[in-house]
Amino acid sequence: MSDFPRISAKERAILDVLIAHGELYGLQIVRAADGIKRGSVYVMLMRLEEKGLVSSRIPAENSVSGKPRPRYRVTGVGQRAMNALELWSSQNVGSDQVAWSR
Asked: What's the pLDDT at 64?
């Protein structure tokens, strides 16, 4: 059986923001999500990307000097995981975390 990544409450908040707003920069996520701090958003985004729930890309029109800034979006797997979480929550599963399989 494959491993079952979990979605924490803060990771869920990031996914909710990305689902609601589409593709965003990390700082835009911080501004839109309650309880997500600037210092931890990129760690959580990296973790979500490793789980296959979020993907990132560096836009071609990235005109900011310095290090290119990636934009993040929810993947199909991430959307399905959030749909499953909503379904389970509506059935009073009562779990803050959800396990899923690819």
From this structure: 61
- Please state the pTM of the whole predicted model: 0.80
Residue tagged 């059935």 (tokens): 91
pLDDT tens per residue across span 25-53: 999 999 999 889 999 999 999 999 999 99
Distance in angstroms (rounded) separating the CA atoms of residues 66 and 17: 26
* Distant-in-sequence contacts of 70-73, Cβ < 8 A, 24+ apart: 70/25, 70/26, 71/23, 71/24, 71/25, 72/18, 72/23, 72/24, 72/25, 72/26, 72/29, 72/45, 73/18, 73/22, 73/23, 73/24
Cα–Cα dist 73/45, whole Å: 10
